[in-house]
């Protein structure tokens, strides 16, 4: 959403008419699970090793930096805080950054730090989905908008 919270200290804003309308309507909750989980900006890049976000939540996989530091605890803590914020705000649909070890909804990096993405979910995405939140990547704004309209129509958004 334009905040400088990426691992490299940068930002990747998501814009467009739909997101702008959601902001105007007060539907947007801006939250970075990695920073909220205790990681600094900038920080070492991290990838999920041994599975995806669901596996990290289940203790089967880990989130590691390229130097081997285990940051799984911070990622799980950030995911839990994101879920709390979503529940407090009544969030039913989330739009998150794709490929992130926290927020990836369709794909994440493969854990080898070679720039290769594989199908999978980030830690926060996995936890939000377990709680019934519908999660979309920033390249799925149209699909998220359809979901929001359907929830609005049935009084659930």
Automatic annotation (TrEMBL):
It comes from the Bacteria. InterPro entries: 2-thiour_desulf. This is DUF523 domain-containing protein. It comes from Streptomyces hyderabadensis.
């Amino acid at each position: 959403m334009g905040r400088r919270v990426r691992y490299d200290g940068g930002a990747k804003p998501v814009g467009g008419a739909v997101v702008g309308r959601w902001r105007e309507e007060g539907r947007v909750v801006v939250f970075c699970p990695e920073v909220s989980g205790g990681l600094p900006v900038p920080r070492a890049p991290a990838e999920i090793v041994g599975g995806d976000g669901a596996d990290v939540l289940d203790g089967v996989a880990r989130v590691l930096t390229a130097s081997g530091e285990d940051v799984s605890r911070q990622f799980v803590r950030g995911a839990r805080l994101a879920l709390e914020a979503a529940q407090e705000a009544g969030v039913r649909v989330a739009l998150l950054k794709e490929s992130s070890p926290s927020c990836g909804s369709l794909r994440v990096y493969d854990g080898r730090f070679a720039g290769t993405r594989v199908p999978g979910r980030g830690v926060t995405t996995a936890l939000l989905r377990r709680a019934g939140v519908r999660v979309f990547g920033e390249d799925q704004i149209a699909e998220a908008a359809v979901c929001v309209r359907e929830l609005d129509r049935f009084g659930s958004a």
